[in-house]
Amino acid sequence: MRELIIVIDILAGLGLIVLVLLQQGKGADMGAAFGSGASATLFGSRGTANFLTRTTAVLATVFFVANLALAYLASSPSEPASVTREIAPSAPAAPPAGTPSVPQPPPAAPSVPDVPK
Fold first, then answer.
1. Which stretches of sequence are listed as region Disordered (predicted)?
2. SS3 track for 14-61
3. How far apart are CA 78 and CA 97, in angstroms?
4. Quick one: pLDDT at residue 51?
5. Is residue 106 over pLDDT 90?
């Protein structure tokens, strides 16, 4: 699930970058108003701007929703909060009920060799 949301997030981010770079600045509209060849475009003189603006808004919404979903999944308590908790649990596991505890013998003292005098 997380991988799918990451892929959607990356694709929406790349799409946003491309759409923002394709859009014209506000100063370019002045030339289109006086008929500087923009009427022969695929979407008409204003159709391109409306299409790109709406598509950018949709992709921005998808991008933000995907980021919110990733933040929610990252904060869910079902997963370990850190790697150290997963590797070394904080409390040792208790023995099953009904098993007698066997005392361990003390460690043997190290033997010291006899040194001749």
1. 84-117
2. HHHHHHHHHCCCCCHHHHHHCCCCHHHCCCCCCHHHHHHHHHHHHHHH
3. 27
4. 86
5. no
Here the tokens at position 76 are: 């869910």
Q: What's the pLDDT tens digit per position in 60-79?
A: 999 999 999 999 988 877 65
3-state secondary structure of 98: coil
Residue 11 falls in which region: left (phi positive, over 0), alpha (psi -120 to 50) or beta: alpha
The two most distant CA atoms of the chain are separated, in Å, by 115
Q: Is this model's pTM higher than 0.85 or not?
A: no
Residue with tokens 């869910």: 76
Nearest to 19 by CA among 63, 64, 52: 52
- CB of 20 closer than 8 Å to CB of 56: yes
Three-class SS of residue 68?
helix
